[in-house]
Amino acid sequence: MMSLFLWSQLLVSLALLLDLLSFQLRDRSRILACLALSCALNAGHFALLGHWSAASLLLLASVRFLVSIWRVRSILMWFFMGLACAAALATYQGLLSWIGLLASLLQTRAAFCPDDRQLRRWMLLGTLCWLVNNLLVGSPVAVLMEGLFLVSNLVGYYRYYGFRHYGYRNWGRGTHHCDRSKVRVPPSDQATP
Prior knowledge:
Layout: H1 4-22, H2 28-49, H3 52-70, H4 74-90, H5 95-111, H6 116-137, H7 140-161
Helix pairs in contact: 1-2, 1-7, 2-3, 3-4, 3-5, 4-5, 5-6, 6-7
């Protein structure tokens, strides 16, 4: 019979596969759908390990990614950020709760960007926080997952845009901004504002 730890590693292995797939896609909706399922599996992984802050934040992230497929309104972003703060406080477990909350807030920002370039950039920062969290938790497959997710994000970005668009000076510039309500996005990448 498998231990809870091994079951948790199996769940996060499935999440890893979805994460790798997600940023090799170009369509924003498909990226978010993969991330929603990955977050649900990752939440189960943390629940099996007894890390309730991370589990609740990732379950919330799953719902957030699904909602952001169709709506990119800033009011929804702030709503999910508020829910993340409440979830972290309700399940507070020390430093890990703060790291998970920071990751969740960064990835909430990402989820409500109508442009996949901005989504990828904010996800990169959130992923770094989850990587630190998973190192502290001691979940080897989860660490591998976040590391590969970083690489997949960078490879996907490079394939579609090249690294000239990844610089820190471009985060808030250009025709695509996360916080503008009326953004011109190509039809294949557009969500309903």
